[in-house]
Amino acid sequence: MSPMSNDPVPTRLLLLGLLVALVGVTLQPTWAQDDETQVIPTLGIGGNADSNGRMIAVTGVDVTGQSILYLVDTEGQQICVYQASGGSSSTQGVKFVGARRIELDLLLDGFNDKTESNGKPLVFKDLQRMFEAQGHTVEDR
Questions:
Q1: pTM reported for the whole predicted model
Q2: Do residues 94 and 121 both lie within one domain?
Q3: Domain hosting residue 127, numbered range
Q4: Is pLDDT above 90 for 11?
Q5: Lower Cβ count inside 10 Å, N or C end of the chain?
């Protein structure tokens, strides 16, 4: 049986990995923002993604112009981030940025979610009630 057959977890992990990569590539670090300044994310040029059933690799360019690589292990439920710099031989290199186990992240209904509806926060439970009122359940995905 292939790792992707009839199991929604790898598909969800693929989507999560791509979402994390896109958000990570586009957002400035919080220490670089004023509290009253809203940063509008933009997608860097030259990003790419691929997977092999276990690993997802996503590349892009961060806000400093450095190449970035996100690796998501869908079976081990981990993400690793690397930054690569080019230029002269003295400035070239690969830097390990960070890693995280994500299995608990995948259990969250929301975290740092700024989703709004009619100017009010729209949390998972409210959204779930809206879907259920239309005859859908979370398991329908």
A1: 0.57
A2: no
A3: 109-141
A4: no
A5: N
